[in-house]
Every structure is written in C-alpha cells, then in structure tokens.
Amino acid sequence: MERGPEGESAEGLAYESYLDAALRGAAEDPAAFLARHTEAGPEERARIEALHRLAAGAPRRAAAPAGPGAPAEQGLPFESLGGFRLLRHLGSGGMGTVFEAEQPGLGRSVALKVIRSELRSSPEALERFRREARAAARLRHANIVSVHSAGEQDGVRWLALDLTPGRGLDEVLAEARERGEPIPPARAARWGARLARALEYAHARGIVHRDVKPSNVRIGPDDQPLLLDFGIARDEDAASTLTGPFVGSAHYAAPEQIAGRPADGRADVYALGATLYECLAGGPPFRAETVDRVLHRALTEDPEPLRRARPGVPRDLEAIVLKALEKEPARRYAGAGAMAEDLEALLEFRPVRARPAGAWRRVRAWARARPALASAAATVFVALCAATVLLASSAREARARARREAASEVALARGRLEAFRQGRVEAERAETIMARLRDELESQYLTEEDDRDLERREDEVHALRRDREAAFHAAFEQLRRAEQADPAVEGAEAVRAELFVERWRDAVTAQDASTAEFYRGLALSHDPSGEATRGALGSGSVSFRSDPPGAEVHLFRLVEQASLDPGGEHRLVPVPARGAAGVPPGTFALRVVRGAGDLAPGDLVVGIAGFPVRDLVLATRGAGPVERGSRLLSVDGAPVRDEWDAEALGTPAPGGGAVPAERTFLFERGGGRAEVRGPGLAALGIEVAGPRAAAEAGGLPARAWTRGAFREVLLPAGIEVRPTATPLPLSPGTLFGRTPVERTPLDRGSWLAVFRAEGREDQRFHLKVDAGQPPYVCAVALLPEGASPQGFVRVPGSKGRAARPFWIQERETTCAEYLEFLNDPETLAEVDAGGGPRRFPRGEAGPSRGHWLRDPGGRFALPPDWRPDWPVLGVSFEDAEAFARWRTGRERAAGGTASYALPAFHQWLAAAGGCDRYFPFGSRFRAKWVKSCFARPRANPEPGMRFPRDESTHGVFDMSGSICEWLDEWYDEARGLRRLAGGCWAFGKSDPFKIYGAAGWKPDRAGDEAGFRLVRTEEGGP
What we know:
CATH topology of the largest domain: paralog of FGE (formylglycine-generating enzyme)
CATH superfamily of the largest domain: paralog of FGE (formylglycine-generating enzyme)
Largest sheet: 6 strands, antiparallel
Structural class: alpha+beta
Helix content: 25-40%
Number of helices: 27
CATH architecture of the largest domain: Alpha-Beta Complex
Number of strands: 41
Strand order of the largest sheet: 1-2-3-4-6-5
Shape: globular
C-alpha cells in the first residue's frame, strides 16, 4: 500500500479527514463526503459511515465533575481502568470517551480519556492517541493540559489527563455572540499572551501543536487559558520537516499547512493569531460557504482589518494579530515567545514591536489581488524612489532630535519614580497615625478635635494615594513617549523595572501574595542584568545549625497552592526546595505524631480503606451488610461530607422538627453499596468516625507516605495522628543538607525548615528571608524523643522577644480539662466564697440557660448540649489565669519544674507563623477554612483540630478560628482592657480571624466567644 510522507496510508486520508471533522463536531453526511473522495475503498467507506453514526449520537456537553470520593454513577463501562476508579461520564467525541476518574489513596481526580472500542482497529485513531500521549507527556506547563500517565488494559487504551474545570473557548465565544457582547480586548490579549508562552514552551521541546483553535482552548474559573488536544501534534525531534497532507482546521490553518509546505512553530503562531482575531472580531479571519473557499481565501487574501470589523480594538493589538496572520512565515513573529512579548508589552503599556499595516504592506495586498495593474504601478514607483534620496539628510537630523527627546523623557520618568517612592514613605507614616486613631475610635471616646484630626489624616492618606497613582502612570507614559521617539533609548527598562519593584513593595505591605508575585515577575523580566532589582528581590544568606550537629535539614518554601495548580486554593502550602514533593502540596492527610508498627512520627496517611482522608466518615464498627471500613455516603438522602454532617443529620436543627423514627443510611465499600434502615446507627450496632478517630482505632488498610515512598499498610493500634492540609512529606529527595549548613543563599520569601536526627524529636523552624538582610541563623536544640509534653508543640526561639523557646498547646483547653480544674476542692471553695460569678463558664450577665451548673452534690457537670472535647468558653481572663496557676501547682506537686501561663502576644505570633501574613494559611480568607459562623449550615462550637487548613507552620491548630483566646497582654492598660486574639465560631467577617487582630475586654468579663490555651516553659528553658 502506498505511504504518505510521514508513513501515513494514502488510502486512509479520506478517513483521516472525516475523523478530523468528526472530532470538531462538524462531520457532514457521508454520502456527500464520499462523492468528493472517490479514492476511498470499500473498507474505508464502511468505516466512515460507522464513524458518522458514532459521531451523530455522541453527546457534546460534559457533565459537572463529581469530585474525589464521590460515588460512581451507574452504567459505566468499567469500574476501574489503569488503577483509576471511574466516577462518571464527562463527554464523548468522534474518537474517544472521557470520564472523570479518581486515583485511590491520593484523592486526585483526572480526566480519563479512553479510545472508543469501535476505533481500536483504526491505525489512524491509534496513532493519534499515541501522538497525544507522547507529545503532552513531555510538557509540564501551567497553560498546557498535563498527561499524568497512559497505558493499555485488556486492549483498552487510555490517557489520564488533568481534570480541567471551566469551559471551551468556543463556548465562551458563542455565548458572547449570542449576548452581543464582544470579548474585551485586554481579556483576549491576556489569553493570547498565556497561550503564546505555552506554545513557546512546547516549541522549545520540539512539539508543534498544529491545531490551535478555540475548541482546543479551555478557559478556567480563574480565567486562565489551557491548551488541549495534542492529537495531531508533530515532534520536530522525530522528523526533520513537518510536511504532508493538510491536517488541522481550515479556519485556523497557516497557508504553508494548507499548501503542504514545510511547517514549524510559526504555523502555531498563525493559528493563535486566527484565534485572537475571532475573539476580537466575533468570527475567524476568513469565512465562506465551503471549506475549499475558506482555504482559497486564506492562501490569496488578507483578512479584513480588525479595527474595521470592531472599531474599539487598540491599534497595537490589531498590529500584533495581523503580524501573526502574515501569509509568509518569515514575515510573522519569529516564534511564539516574540508574540508573547508584544502582547505582554501591550498589557503593560509599553511599545510593541509589531507595526500597523503600512503603505508597502497595503501595496503587496493590492498587488496580490490585481497582478495586471501592479506591473504598471511598478514604473511609477521607481520614479518616486529618486525623491526619497532628498529626504535622507533631514531624516538624520530628525533621528538625533528624537534621541535627545527620548533621553529627556527617561529623566522625567525617573523623577516620577522618585516621587512615587517618597509618596510611599509618606503614605505609610500617615496610615500608621490613622490606624492608631481608628483603633482609639473603636476603644475610647474621641474629642471633637480628635475627630477632626482623624478626618484630616484620612483625607491626607487618600490624597497621597491619588498622587502616587498619578506619578506611577505619568512615569509609564513618559517611558512610552521615550521609546516611541527612540526604541533604543538607554535607561527606560531600568526605570520600568524599578517602578514594578515599588508596586511589589506595595503588594507585600498589603500582604497580597498573588499581586506581589505578579509585579515581582514583571520587575525581573524587565531587568535581565539584575541591577535594578537585586537590592529588593535578590536572595538572602541563611545558616542552619543544630545541637547536636549532623541533623538533617529538610527545607520547604511556602507558596500559594493556586500558583502551582490553576485549580488550587489561594493558601500557603509547603513545597520542597529540592526534590519532588511525593505527596502533592496541599493534600489533606493525617500526620503521625506517635508511631507504631510500620508507621513512625512524621509519616503521612493519605488514604484509609481505599478512600482519601479528606472529609471521610468511616464505619469503625460494622454490622449486617455494613462492613468495618465502609464509607458513610448519606443519611435520608442528604450527603455526608464530613464529621459535622454525620453528627448534625442525626439531630434536629434549632426550631426544626423531630428526627424521623426510622432513618436510611447509605454506605460504600469496594465499589459496592449497602443501604440500612433503623432508628439510628447505634441501634443498628454501627459506629462511625472521622478520619482521625478511624485511623487511631487501627486495623484498617491504609495508604501511607513512609520512609520516602508510598506504601500499603495496616493501621496499627496505638498510633496518634493529626489532620493536616499542609503535609511535609520528608524523604531523601527533600534533604537540603546536614548541619551545619553555612551561609547558603535563599530567595526572599517564607520558608519552613524541618530538622531531623536519630533519637530526637523533629523540630520545625519558620523563617522569612529578605534580600539584603544580615545573614540569618536558624539554630535549634533537638530534644530527645518523648521530651515534649503530650498535647504541646515546641516553638523554637527566633528573634526579638520570642528568642526563648517555649511549648504551646496544639489546640485550645477543652471542657473536659477545665471541668477537672473546676471540681478541684480548692476551686469549689473559691466559687463558694462568693463575690460574684467566678471560675465556672457563664454568660456575660452571670449564670444562664445552657451554661454549667452544679449538681446536688456541689460538683459541676457539662450541660446536656455541651461536649467534653469542645474548647472551654464562657470564661474570663481571671478564670484562665487561675487555671494556669492550678496547672502549675499540680505539676510542681508531681515533682515537675514546668510553669504554665497564658501566651504573651509575641508568643502567639511566633506560634501562628509570624506577621508576614494575615492568617496562618496566607492572606486570603474563606469562612469554611476556619471554625467560623459560616463554616457550617448552623453555627455552633465544635471540637478542636477539625479544620486542617487552620494549622500554623509549627503545627498549632485553630489559631484563626474556633474561639477568641485570652492573652497575657494589655490591650489598653489605662482602661484596664486585656487582649484577646483569633476569631470565633460566632463571627463571620474576616478581620477578627487575622492572627494579629485583637479585641480588648475587662479581665472579669466572660462570654461564649472567649476561651484560652496555655504556654509551658521549663526552668532554664525547654
């Protein structure tokens, strides 16, 4: 059989062409198609007709993702494939079917692409599948869909790709056309810049996509574009030229592709230009009734100018798109990176290299359409050339004048930069004074003079902000004028980089991590030499030391999860400075704090009984058809998402009706489901628990990260675990060095070091690195295993007032612990001594319904609706101090030397991770990440450590939410107000949840918002 230029069957080209149309959802009637393709043989005709039937019945819309741990829908063709558990059907095309699937143990959802059984004998379809796997597997870029793995099982080929939320760009454009609202030019330019960078990355690795078009671009919820479908990509490493029959999509194919000439990455540049043209004009560059006519126009005509099709398009953006659509590859951008640079320059108000269509380009287009008239016009053109010589002298003088004007504009821009800097210093000073006045406004009476002063300060701050904005934009405008006058003017890029550095400083001060990273990237990209940014954005010097020396140092950088994964959360997660993470950053897991069997402290449990640990509720005791280790899915049809649901669904809501006499419980295990009915789980002999309690009960199979690898283990009895959403998967690959590590450079930012040595407790050390700071020394004393008291976390000394190490409770003091103190005879005697309500939990107005009362024997007991594992609340500062004294006295009576106290404010900040962020998890707030009044459908106190995101870098929980905590610190000493820190289960707004947010109460005031935790110190230090 005859073969094509790349080994493709010439006989199969008709099928290949029809398959292209089917994959686009544009397959025509096979009779009309075959009438034009008489070369197709009988077998190929039959395959085309079968493909038409297949494509005609294929649904085009995808179902909503199910999410990890969701039950699988009914009627799926496989239960699992390639180690992935299928969850639901997402969509089908002419060649493949896509399912949402879950990788058990990791809790990772993927899009599992499976070749249709009808096409398994098609060499073209199989080759497309292999091609997509080979191409995409080599690419790891934020704007390219990633292939996790590929394989074949029982004759079924599959690809596991990123599960990409969002919508196809073709859908976005169709909706925009229906609404009559064109895509904003800036939005289209941002998409284009990201996609151009993705293509630049692919081209650098020898991959040419060859089918860039709106339906192969997905727009995520964060408005980031993602390039899909490398099914017809070509590998430049595997073939010296990319020639052969036309493949791709007619409206977006470059002329060289249509003509069968050699094509390289510039063909993708053309296709991206055509895609941007459609975004801006509402339709592709060339439109016609038939595909042949579209191809003819693409080869012989220029597209209609964008600004004629849509007058509001910026002139520079039109020039960029039309340069990408040049018919000759040599006249286009030299590569996708050059196109990206122009689009980025446009977005940053810098000059672009692409120029609007000039006279010569218009002449070429006119000549191409009218060849006869072009010959006559050439004679006239020769005569005009003579006149050009006379203008050369005056042009030289104009260039010299332009250079002088450009240098003057750069000097003015630098003056604006200095004004912008000085404005920042003045604004910070004014804002500090204004913040103090506002604080006083909230905590004391202000005189009329104070009120006027506050208003004057607010006006001053607003004016300074306005003046700074004006200086910033004026500087950019002067740089633009300078570069228009003389593109080679010196100093413009340095000023631009320094302006971006100042914007970066503003974002850092505002603790806006994503904006800071954006301006940091801009500053570095405009300062290749590093001279303008070295002082602010360079690295710092850090030394790591330990007693004893020789300890391992595992180093992690704290970055936003969303910067690693477009679908990730905007919270800080640790990423290894060296080596792979093993457990994906931000994965919900259980951290082992007391080991047994195969598990040691620091190991991570990521799955139990085949389910990911996130929001897991398992049967810890089974009965009837419900086995131990079955997952509770729903109660009376309502889904169970976590422990709170499991508890709340069994009790009536406040003001609601009674609990039904018979309940329906749905469980899942091993892909099967079991439904049981009864008055309650206890009556059925079934017990359920969240992931922590289920793991500590032991006896269930689990997937764990231990000894630097994932292993299947049986959970032993006697282990102790903690939930975490910021896992630290230590392994030989994350080892940074062994102490002492002296003066190693680290980029500025937040880092977390974990020191580990044989026979010693792991010690975390959180550090913030700034460029130009004095050498930073992380020095720790490693304690013997078992030295830390149970329930306490050791925070090492760092700087300033927090230089001395201390222990702090990993969660707030509980009701059970406080009840023991309250029923001590000495405490009961204090209560009986009178003098007003004291020591026992109560409302602000004294004893109230639902608070703690005494039984006939005089002892206190928890009210029926309170739980012993809740944090104690309703206590005053004086009560909390009394508990600390009682705990110290009990320690001394047992022969110990430890002292207990309420945390000082500097200790609180150190335990929470410092003040370089608003919350322990970063600078973005979500009410469901902490125990707030909006974390659940009903507001109520809860046991501690149920919100793994609310864990500090030192492993301290609930420092943002749960309850406000009394500190051993004055809020306003003159008025006798004591400080509280952290948010509360009854609050909803974000400000009280900030780690350095504070409130001031009288020390004898008690309310349902207030509780406490203790710090512990040893004589001579821990």
